[in-house]
């Protein structure tokens, strides 16, 4: 988890006014703030959604009184007290499973009782999915029908290597129609025609797929 977590975590205490917490979130463009005790240990999480739910709407009767009460409301009054924590050495898979089990979108990374990082669903998405799929990377992507199992994949990789084209990312997906694993390969090239032709000679159907 240490590879995808956000470091230098901004925190608040349970006594922080909700208005101050909201200002911090807006200033730093974040949606979640861990709440810590006097020892720096996590005791809760406050989110923009929770703060939005307690804001009065324009035209609300006695609006000034509500605003006065809100000015005296602290993070401790609205925070989610259930904190899901993981260690820096825990796997991403473990952290995601733990977050899903608790139905939360954030896990706090703790070491020796202190917060060293935070991971949200966005961190998981951008840190893992983007890297796995090569999103934002240059090159072209092809799919080879039925090429995602052991021996076929070996032949396909060997064929591409002989052509001197770099394989940036590859993964297998199950085809619902032919009940076989297809192989998706992200190549460091802008023209995959020679790769597709050589794979055709080996008996594989391959085509460029949109990115």
Portion in beta strands: 15-25%
CATH topology of the largest domain: CBS-domain
CATH class of the largest domain: Alpha Beta
The secondary-structure class comes to alpha+beta
Main beta sheet: 4 strands, antiparallel
Shape: elongated
What is the helix fraction of residues, given as a range? 25-40%
Poorly predicted regions: none
Give me a quick take on this structure.
With 211 residues, the protein is α+β, with helices and mostly antiparallel strands.
Structure commentary:
- This protein has 211 residues and is an alpha+beta fold.
- The protein has helices spanning 18-28, 48-54, 63-71, 75-78, 92-102, 121-133, 150-162, 193-201; strands at 12-13, 32-36, 42-47, 85-86, 106-111, 114-120, 140-144, 167-174, 181-187, 206-208.
- A hairpin with a 5-residue loop joins β2 (32-36) and β3.
- 21% of the residues are buried.
What are the main properties of this structure?
CBS-domain, Alpha-Beta Plaits, 2 domains, 4-stranded antiparallel beta sheet, 3-stranded mixed beta sheet, 10 strands, 36% helix
Indicate the topology.
Blueprint: E1 12-13, H1 18-28, E2 32-36, E3 42-47, H2 48-54, H3 63-71, H4 75-78, E4 85-86, H5 92-102, E5 106-111, E6 114-120, H6 121-133, E7 140-144, H7 150-162, E8 167-174, E9 181-187, H8 193-201, E10 206-208
Parallel strand pairs: 1-2, 4-5
Antiparallel strand pairs: 2-3, 5-6, 7-9, 7-10, 8-9
């Amino acid at each position: 988890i240490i590879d995808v977590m956000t470091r230098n975590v901004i925190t608040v205490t349970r006594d922080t006014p909700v208005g101050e917490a909201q200002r911090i979130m807006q200033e730093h463009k974040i949606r979640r703030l861990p709440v810590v005790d006097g020892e720096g240990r996590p005791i809760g999480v406050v989110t923009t959604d929770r703060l939005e739910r307690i804001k009065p709407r324009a035209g609300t009767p006695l609006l000034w009184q509500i605003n006065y009460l809100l000015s005296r409301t602290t993070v401790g009054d609205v925070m989610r007290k259930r904190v899901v924590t993981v260690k820096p050495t825990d796997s991403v898979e473990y952290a995601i499973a733990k977050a899903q089990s608790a139905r939360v979108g954030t896990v706090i990374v703790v070491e020796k009782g202190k917060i060293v990082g935070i991971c949200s669903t966005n961190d998981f998405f951008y840190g893992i999915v983007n890297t796995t799929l090569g999103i934002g990377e240059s090159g072209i992507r092809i799919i080879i029908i039925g090429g995602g199992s052991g021996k076929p994949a070996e032949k396909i990789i060997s064929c591409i290597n002989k052509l001197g084209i770099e394989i940036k990312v590859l993964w297998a997906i199950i085809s619902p129609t032919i009940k076989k694993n297809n192989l998706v390969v992200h190549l460091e090239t802008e023209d995959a025609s020679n790769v597709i032709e050589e794979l055709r000679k080996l008996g594989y159907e391959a085509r460029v797929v949109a990115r």
